[in-house]
Amino acid sequence: MRRFMTVENNQNTDFLCLECGHINENNSELICQPCQTPLDKTFYDLLINYSLRAIRYGYNYRTNYERQVKSKGKINEKYSLLDPQNEVQWLAAAALSGVAGNLVYDTIKHVAKQIKIRLTEKSKTIELKQVDKDTFEIVSDEQTLAKFVLYIQNYYKGNAKLDKRVADAIAEEEIVHAMTEGKSEQLTNTLSKQENGKAMQKMFLEMFKNGAEEAKKLRQQGPTPQQLEKLFSLVKKNRGNPVDKKTKNKKASAKRKK
Ligand SMILES: [Zn+2]
Fold it and tell me: How far is the CA of 242 from the centre of ligand 1 (A)?
């Protein structure tokens, strides 16, 4: 899945500044244009990869399965997975910066606004993919955005109050993905060699156990609360669009001096 992401994702010179929340485009130097903060690529990758999982299991599957339980009383359709794109991962990173109890409304609004503009621009040249359409819906509707933020934070904190059917269906997805990620070769080999039913059963059980352990490990491999608390410090400090506000204030005080 991750390999697919990098092939698909050729916008890797676009990044979200973790200090001021500015979305930099075509910036291969990885130094944020407005605030001049160099990007900590190692931490950024960890955060963005974690965001992907939080979106997938904490929001996408959850909203889909909750909808099914609500309307049909059961889950009879398995959700087909669309991997998140940059934009929604940035939004999730903004949501995660609030898990330590910080007020992150400004950061989220700041990032959401830029995403909306970016997707609007994108839609003028190409037809938006379903993932982008979903993201556009999140950033365009206040209620959906609030739900997204809550669900991402729930995933991180592990404190979602889930219907058992929803929780089980998500756990199943999470384990199956952890089971098969990067293991397709092993799986194909075993399937072609093993014809004995018992051996097959044993292998699947083994893989399932490994998958469950791996899923648990992946959940714990996220950013620490301390790291998240430090995110977007410029936005938090200046309460709002940091760079614009600063220049506006400067201009305003310059005017006043005259
Ligand atoms: Zn910046």
Answer: 9
Share of the chain above pLDDT 90, in %: 53
Residue 65 lies in a domain: yes
List CB-based neighbours of ion ligand 1 within 5 Å.
17, 19-20, 22, 32, 35, 37
Domain of 34? 7-163+225-243
With respect to residue 238, please indicate whether it lies within any of the assigned structural domains. Answer: yes
pLDDT for residue 13: 87
- Domain membership of residue 82 (yes or no) is yes
Q: What is the pLDDT of residue 165?
A: 93
- Two tokens, residue 168: 């089980």
Q: Where are the alpha helices (DSSP H) in the chain?
A: 2-8, 41-53, 61-72, 86-96, 105-125, 130-140, 142-157, 164-180, 184-193, 197-220, 225-230, 233-238, 242-257
Q: Which of 6-10, 117-121, 160-164, 173-177 has the highest mean pLDDT?
A: 117-121
Q: Could you report the per-residue pLDDT of 92-106, keeping only the tens digit for each? A: 999 999 887 777 889
Tokens of 156: 């991180």
**Ligand 1 centre from 4 Cα, in Å?**
28
Whether the per-residue pLDDT at 258 is higher than 50: the answer is: no
Does any domain span residue 205?
no
- Give dist(CA 207, CA 209) in Å, integer: 5
**What is the whole-number distance in angstroms between the Cα of residue 219 and the centre of ligand 1?**
28
- Ligand 1 center to 103 CA (angstroms): 19
Count of structural domains, the chain: 1
